[in-house]
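Weekly structure sync - notes
Attendees: PM, LS, DV (DV joined late)
Agenda: review two folding runs queued last week.

Item 1: First target. Sequence and structure tokens pasted below for the record.
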Amino acid sequence: MAQLIDNTARNRYEWPVDGGVAFVDYRRGDGVIALTHAEVPPELEGRGVGSAMVRAVLEAARANGEKVRPQCSFVAAYIRRHKEFQDLL
């Protein structure tokens, strides 16, 4: 299982998997985290890496007491499909 890393120097969450690193870029301010871009290395695509990473990012936002602004289409679609995260909007 990958470990979510909050790389504050690069303003992104990182999800290292099998020698690659998937990530979600963000901007933070006033108790809101804007998730601006999610990327999974091509060699890791189709394995559920993006979904697992976004779930971990949303759980981290909840644990931090942050609201979420999904500016990335992948993140927005994930939240639409997973009603348990809609309270973060």
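Item 2: Second target, run right after the first with the same settings.
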Amino acid sequence: MPVIPSGRPRNGRRPGDVSYLSLAFPDVARGERFYAGLLGWTFPVGQPGRPQGDGVTPEVEPGDGVTPEVGMWDGARPGSAATRGAVPGFRVEDIGVSVVRVRDLGGTATDAVERPYGLEAECSDNQGLPLFLHQLPDEPADDGTDLTNGRQHGDVAYLTFEVADLGLAEAFYGPLLGWSFSAGSVDEGRQITGVTPMAGLWAGGTPGLIPAYRVDDIGVAVARTAELGGVAGPIDERPYGLAADFCRDDQGIRFHLVELG
């Protein structure tokens, strides 16, 4: 699996960490143009995308990949339900055991298949949200670097899982991935503990996954979102820095922006 130049991993370290973030678009080329303009992502010529469909994997600088690893792909794949927006992958120790557990917990899971990077199963949770499971080779030894909120402009700083029912989500992801939960800042939320990048559950809105991208200057990023045909929410001050929530790209895919203090 890819590592960033320092040797630090891009695909999580522990079971339950995010191993990959797929961004499914109606038009992948438009997705490339938007996120290249907003986040500085580049797309190496000839780089293969995900095996399941047409896609590309962005970098922040030449040879310096986005953390965690992100891929863009065509969400309208033959033989599969159309997908739009962000779909997470998670590291697991034993994918065979995890596939059975997904099914026992009320989700769906394909049998594991071998990919060049390890074993993979395509799943959905007990509320219908799509996800992947990955059994991957061991990552380099932990060098102590904190990747909780990414490390540079263009990285993923936070993931918000929007769900219809918080209790059902906790009952699924706790036993499956070993997650534990603490109270969020509001009754509709839960903070997920022990996962990289940081993540939380939110009951409300349209079910799905919303990534928050780290930016160096949120004012510039909000203006650039509009210039590129997207929509950005107002900038709010938070305990951790500045945030613009409920943004959308030029294809309607949701995201947040954060400038960390």
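Discussion on item 2: The mean pLDDT is 86.
Action: LS to circulate a short write-up before next sync.
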